[in-house]
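Throughout our pipeline, every protein is held as a single compact record rather than as scattered files. Nothing more is needed to write down the fold, since each code stands for a local backbone conformation. For reference, a complete record is included directly beneath this paragraph.
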Amino acid sequence: MPCHATRLVSPLKLDGVLDEPVWSTASPISAFTQRDPHEGAPPRQKSEVRLAYDDAALYVGARLYDTAPDSILVRLSRRDNMVPSDAFAVFLDPLRDRRSGYYFMVNAAARCSTARC
């Protein structure tokens, strides 16, 4: 499924709040499948990802819905340590060789303070 990024016409505020106009007008990507626990199965929860870009960067906006938010695994860890936690990742294959690329991941603890979790 091809996905299209929307070119920005004004700067974004990188605050984790998707309230800029681009996030409501860009085409959502929602045809996802599971990786865990059942690879290839339809997702159990709804997710929508939108892409935007400018001359300097690619921006990813994700709305990850959960019908039971009290069950979200929030675990903070040191950098480069994987812990069981709900997370979102973006994998990029700029050479289109399916062998090399980049990935960026954030877990549910990224926007969580001790007082709120």
Remarks:
- The first helix runs from residue 22 to 25.
- DSSP finds one helix and five strands in the chain.
- Confidence is low (pLDDT under 50) at residues 112-117.
- The chain has two domains: 1-65, 68-117.
